[in-house]
Design a protein that fits this description.
The complex is a heterodimer.
Chain A (H helix, E strand, L loop, with lengths): L2 H15 L30 H6 L14 E7 L5 E7 L1 H5 L3 E5 L33 E2 L5 E7 L2 H8 L3 E6 L6 H4 L8 E2 L2 E2 L2 E3 L2 H7 L2 E9 L11 E7 L2 E6 L4 H12 L6 E4 L14 H13 L3 E4 L2 H7 L6 E9 L5 E11 L22 E9 L14 H19 L3 H7 L17 H12 L11 E2 L2 E13 L7 E7 L4 E4 L9 H13 L6 E4 L16 H24 L13 E4 L2 E4 L2 E7 H7 L4 E7 L4 H5 L3 E13 L5 E11 L6 H20 L5 E2 L4 E2 L17 E6 L22 H13 L15
Parallel strand pairs in A: 1-14, 12-13, 16-17, 21-22, 28-31
Antiparallel strand pairs in A: 1-5, 2-4, 2-6, 3-5, 7-8, 9-17, 10-15, 11-12, 11-14, 15-16, 18-19, 19-27, 20-21, 20-26, 23-24, 24-25, 27-28, 29-30
Helix pairs in contact in A: 10-18, 13-14, 14-15, 17-18
Chain B lengths: L4 E4 L3 H4 L9 E3 L5 H6 L7 E4 L7 E3 L5 E4 L4 H6 L1 H6 L1 H8 L4 H6 L2 H6 L5 H4 L42 H7 L3 E5 L4 E5 H4 L18 E7 L8 E7 L7 E12 L2 E10 L6 E2 L1 H7 L6 H12 L11 H17 L4
Parallel strand pairs in B: 1-3, 2-3
Antiparallel strand pairs in B: 4-5, 5-8, 6-7, 6-8, 9-10, 10-11, 11-12
Helix pairs in contact in B: 5-9, 11-12, 12-13
Classes of the chains: A alpha+beta, B alpha+beta.
The structure holds flavin-adenine dinucleotide.
């Protein structure tokens, strides 16, 4: 975002400040908040049976005649160029159809970056792909093999000989600080926030903490590896992909290959986990380029190790947090400065600098973040980007402050809850963290907490800790859906939206059923393909709200179209869309249930089999007028071995204030899954970059430790379920908040157990010996 | 992976009946070898599957047990005689890998599994003296969290990753070998080599020689034995430090002590110095710590693995304390 964009966003905010709330979309709360039938009930995922039976077809499983398989050769230096490249043996190996390198790859444009402005862009790693002999990071693809079988391709890949001319590479976080960049904005917020005089407040404070917190590079490890099955047909590019940005991928591939948008078709009905990592990376482009050269369909499935080399992760950060408080624990200053890795060819900010702007009321703020350029694969978004690492730093610092003051850390947080946005002064759309804290504390039994735990069992010291989690509400403009109603009274909702296992189709089916006054069984949802109406990404926890707004918009259009179609020969004659509501499989007059007609009857009388309308999520002005954040209270109980430093988490409770919960079953999975990911972040996960050559040395699930079942404690999730009157269905997104706050809660519990404050993640046992 | 031929042997004779100059490799459960072949760390053009050789667990005359090389890790761990007489062995087995892998893995393969050093696995990104003799070692100076503090050399500090073998080492296990011409027996302590200048030689196994089984001597102390594995997550991770120990206390002094360490050396490490320091002494935390210090006096850290020295020390003390129970 440029300075100009900052100014525009700021300007819009100022104007909106004077507009009455009722003028805004969502100004009148969504009537479905009051009138829920299926929403709010526990519904199993409609994709479940297919997945259990193996019927769901993932990108790497699409059958195709004449398919060629892919293997990649990755660079082993971080910077320099290819001096010699011998592909002879590989080309001569059995089954090999083609070896693609920079010498024969087709001309490819650089992919357009994921952005806030274009929804047709999904690029992460904005560099030329196989266009020259330059090496820009260790792991870059230098050759691609196409062969008749996966095994033959893998074998041939081992025969490619490469010699490099090595240049000095930037691989060290510490050294890169000298050239740190300070961007004007982070996402759409101004980067630098100065409010009041934080420095003076820190100097004068009765209580103060000031410390540096570090979080490592984390890699994406969805269970389904990145994969695509690619086909060129009559000048069109058809991609069966695993993506959370269907239209973004299609639009980007069109740019890369110089095609029109409608010449690219991307299909991705099921995605085996995305978390921010499944957008456009080099592999889809390479597969499409190779398919073009070979004139045959191509399948690419990244090996786990290739996922580490080609797919970026959560950027490494170093964050300084200084807090000042008066004698009663009122915050007077919040300083949050930091560095994170963001190479020049990278798109995604790691926006930890936004975390501290909404959590606490505070007299002064001093916030800024800097970017470091390294010769590594581009970083990207990963569940709770910004907040996941930002809450680790801030919520550890809050705990340190509470300890210093001698206060219960829950009480310290409650004392500083803001009653409006602490920076802009905007009112909250809905916010009740106090209730979340209360619910969580009761469930967890926080009353057992002591300032320094004295409990132990044998060699194990027991500790309790807590932290706040947070994630902003987002709704994307431009998300669209088509609703089709047929003369049997069935409705189909269609959109190029994404199912990564979270329950998109399940929940929107509930939504559409309630919105259209239909029983669940009469609604179908079709998603996951660019032949369907344009959809924005599944990211920023925005998909549910965005689809919600699109379905709402489409349904009012539908009402209008239906009443027009109904003509004069109907009990609805003379009514306008505003006077109508959906009920009992049709439309009826608000306040006069006797004036009613079913969809089937309207359509049959008009001689129509069906009617279709499209609707689109409007500009999300509610986000500018209101402070819209979800929060959570996370509680952790754990034990630390005095002999070995091992940490065993024995209990985790999360209480969430996220607006209305639409389906307790899918919601609980999102929260719990996020919290489990948070445990990995806290205790075991870490990408190891060897600074000598920029090589990732943890490129396997043996070396990169995600939590296993035995690492997981009882996890309780609760929610306030208070509707947000400014959000469609009263619901804010819930996909990401689960991970936030967990690492701090763990670190705080470790401190409570041992008296040791670990400020760099992950908290491995060597740090506790 | 290079294409290879495959045949199944159902007897030792069949297994050893390879063509004279063939480069045939034995395949157990394949849980290690197949990965190594797929990642091009090792190459083979002929495999002979020895996982279907007789897989029995039999009593020996001296009251010990003989275990066929093809016995699966799961079967060995579940054998009631192992559980009763050598609890540390079943615990060691069950702390390794996952249930699925243990169902496949054989005793022979487990003995001969190769190190998990990430540089060893990184073909072609890293140099490794184990893979290519004399190529150099990128691990030293790199990430060494999993590397050896005992018995390493300038050429290699990779650790032996097995859990089972740590318990077997403490139990004075003997390996039975057969190359078709000669049947040999080697104590496990002589079976494994230290890396020195030839880290690519890991054992005394000759080319084409088959492990036919192992013999675990009777050991009264082992009734009171255990295995503790310290790792980066609760399960499904290799040991940072592990301790196999057995102790028999008589008349207030340690009459028999067996102690071996995993995760700290290029081979399963028998802690002979610690054993010597404890034999005949009264069990106490102080004695345990002194014994650990005696063993670790020669320990050398590479940077990333420095924590293993205090970790090994306190884990040894904790395990011995547990075995001594009220006696300490
Ligand atoms: C994900 C994962 C996690 C693991 N975690 C652990 C762990 O925590 N702890 C642990 O101890 N182990 C662990 N392992 C390793 C596992 O124990 C070994 O892979 C297994 O024991 C090897 O046995 P196998 O029969 O499958 O051997 P194979 O892979 O078949 O063979 C291994 C080697 O032994 C040779 N060989 C096999 N049988 C004979 C024979 N009879 N005579 C001569 N040579 C023979 C082969 O030629 C080969 O060189 C893990 C493995 C994996 C894949």
């Amino acid at each position: 975002m440029s300075k100009l964009q900052n100014a525009i966003v700021g300007g819009v905010r100022r104007v909106l400040g004077q507009v009455p709330a009722g003028w805004l979309p969502g100004g009148t709360p969504d009537p479905l908040i009051q009138r829920r039938v299926s929403l709010g009930t526990q519904q199993p995922r409609i994709d479940g049976p297919d997945k259990v039976r193996g019927g769901a077809r993932f990108a790497a499983e699409v059958p195709m005649d004449g398919l060629l398989y892919t293997a990649l050769v990755h660079a082993t230096i971080a910077r320099g160029r290819i001096a010699e490249l011998d592909t002879g043996a590989a080309e001569a190996a059995p089954g090999v159809a083609l070896v693609m390198t920079h010498r024969n790859a087709p001309k490819l444009a650089v992919p357009p970056p994921i952005g806030m402005t274009s929804m047709k862009a999904a690029g992460n790693n904005i560099l030329p792909i196989m266009q020259d002999p330059e090496i820009r990071w260790n792991g870059q693809t230098v050759a691609l093999i196409l062969a008749e079988s996966q095994e033959e391709a893998d074998h041939a890949a081992t025969l490619v000989q490469v010699r490099y001319e090595t240049e000095r590479a930037r691989t060290r976080f510490e050294e890169a600080k000298a050239d740190a960049r300070t961007p004007d904005s982070i996402l759409i917020e101004k980067n630098r926030l100065l409010k009041g005089n934080a420095e003076a407040a820190l100097t004068a404070a009765a209580h103060r903490t000031d410390a540096v917190y570090r979080t490592p590079w984390y890699n994406h490890n969805p269970i389904e590896p990145h994969a695509a099955t690619v086909l060129w047909k009559d000048g069109r590019l058809i991609v069966h992909d695993a993506t959370q940005m269907l239209n973004g991928t299609a639009g980007s591939l069109a740019k890369v290959f110089g095609l029109k948008d409608d010449q690219v078709h991307v299909s991705s009905p099921f995605v085996g986990g995305g978390f921010g990592g499944k957008a456009l990376w080099d592999h889809q482009i390479l597969a499409a380029a190779a398919a073009k050269l070979a004139k045959r369909p191509v399948r690419i499935v990244l090996r786990r190790s290739s996922m580490y080399r080609l797919i970026g992760g959560r950027a490494e950060t170093e964050q300084r947090v200084a807090l000042a408080a008066d004698a009663r624990g009122k915050l007077t200053a919040l300083l949050h400065h930091g560095y994170s890795v963001k190479p020049l060819h990278s798109v995604c900010d790691e926006q930890y600098g936004l975390t501290g702007r909404s959590l606490y009321a505070c007299e002064s703020f001093d916030i800024v973040q800097h970017h470091l350029d390294l010769d590594v694969v581009a970083n990207t978004f990963m569940r709770g980007p910004g907040e996941a690492v930002g809450t680790f730093a801030i919520e550890s610092a809050i705990d340190e402050l509470a300890h210093d003051i001698g206060m219960d850390p829950v009480a310290l947080r409650l004392r500083n809850l803001p009653d409006r946005d602490p920076v802009s002064g905007a009112p909250h759309s809905q916010s009740d963290p106090a209730k979340a804290w209360q619910m969580g504390a009761d469930q967890f039994g926080w009353n057992r907490w002591e300032r320094r735990s004295t409990r132990r069992e044998g060699e194990w010291r027991l500790g309790l800790g807590c932290a706040t989690g947070t994630f902003p509400y987002a709704r994307m403009p431009g998300m669209s859906v088509r609703i089709t109603v047929d003369d049997e009274g069935r409705a189909t909702v269609a959109s190029a939206a994404h199912e990564m296992g979270m329950g998109t189709a399940t929940v929107q089916r509930q939504h559409a059923a309630d919105r259209l006054g239909l029983p669940l069984e009469r609604v179908d949802v079709r998603i996951g393909d660019t032949s369907l109406p344009f959809a924005t990404m599944a990211g920023g926890s925005s998909q549910t709200a965005s689809l919600g707004a699109a379905i709402t918009a489409a349904s009012s259009k539908l009402a209008g179209e239906l009443v027009r179609l109904a003509g004069n020969d109907t009990p609805l004659a003379g009514l306008r869309a505003n006077d109508l509501e959906f009920a009992e499989g049709g439309l009826r007059c608000v306040g006069d249930p006797s004036r009613q007609e079913s969809f089937a009857s309207i359509l049959r009388r008009a001689g129509r089999r069906q009617i279709s309308v499209e609707g689109e999520s409007s500009a999300p002005l509610e986000m500018l007028k209101f402070a819209m954040h979800s929060t959570s209270a996370i509680f952790c109980e754990l034990r630390v071995s005095e002999a070995t430093g091992e940490v065993r988490v024995t209990r985790l409770v999360g209480a969430f204030d996220c607006g209305r919960i639409l389906n307790p079953k899918t919601a609980a999975s999102q929260f719990r899954g996020g919290m489990i990911m948070g445990l990995g972040m806290a205790l075991t996960e870490e990408t190891l970059l060897d600074p000598r050559n920029g090589r990732i040395m943890s490129a396997s699930l043996t070396d990169y430790h995600v939590p296993v079942h035995l690492d997981l404690p009882e996890i309780d999730v609760l929610w306030t379920d208070i509707p947000d009157p400014r959000a469609p269905m009263g619901a804010r997104g819930i996909g990401e908040i689960g991970i936030t706050g967990v690492a701090a809660a763990v670190a705080n519990a470790v401190f409570n157990a041992t008296g040791k404050r670990v400020r760099d993640l992950p908290i491995t046992l060597d740090k506790l010996l | 992976m290079t294409p290879f031929s495959y045949r199944v042997a159902t007897s030792t004779t069949e297994a050893l009946a390879a063509a004279p100059d063939s480069s045939e490799r034995f395949l157990g459960g394949g849980t290690n070898l197949v990965d190594l072949l797929r990642q091009n760390v090792e190459q083979a053009d002929a495999l002979v599957d020895v996982s279907r050789l007789p897989a029995s667990i039999d009593e020996t005359e001296d009251g010990g047990l003989w275990v066929g090389a093809a016995v699966r890790n799961t079967a060995l761990a579940a054998d009631p005689r192992i559980g009763a007489r050598y609890p540390m062995l079943s615990r060691a087995l069950l702390s390794g890998a996952s249930a699925q892998i243990r169902n496949m893995a054989t005793v022979g393969g487990n003995l001969l599994q190769r190190t998990r050093c990430a540089y060893f696995y990184d073909v072609p990104g890293a140099r490794c003296n184990k893979r290519v003799s004399g190529a150099g070692c990128d691990a030293i100076g790199g990430f060494t969290r999993y590397h050896a503090i005992l018995g390493a050399s300038e050429q290699c500090a990779a650790t032996h990753p097995s859990d089972m073998c740590v318990a077997l080492m403490a139990l004075d296990t003997v390996v039975h070998l057969d190359d078709g011409n000669e049947k040999r027996r080697l104590p496990l302590s002589e079976f494994y080599r230290l890396p020195g200048n030839t880290p690519h030689f890991e054992t005394e196994l000759r080319t084409g020689e088959l492990v036919t089984g192992i013999q675990i001597p009777s050991c009264r102390a082992a009734v009171n034995s255990t295995y503790r594995k310290v790792r980066d997550r609760s399960s499904y991770a290799f040991a940072l430090v592990s301790v196999a120990a057995a102790m028999r206390v008589e008349n207030g002094v340690i009459a028999d002590i067996r102690l071996a360490l995993g995760g700290v050396a290029p081979r399963p490490w028998r802690a002979a110095k610690a054993e010597a320091a404890l034999a005949g002494r009264a069990p106490s935390q102080e004695a345990f710590r002194n014994a650990a210090d005696a063993e670790l006096a020669d320990a050398r850290a590479l940077g990333g693995n420095a924590f293993k020295i205090p970790l090994a020390r306190s884990t040894i003390a904790a395990v011995l304390g547990e075995l001594a129970g009220d006696a300490a």
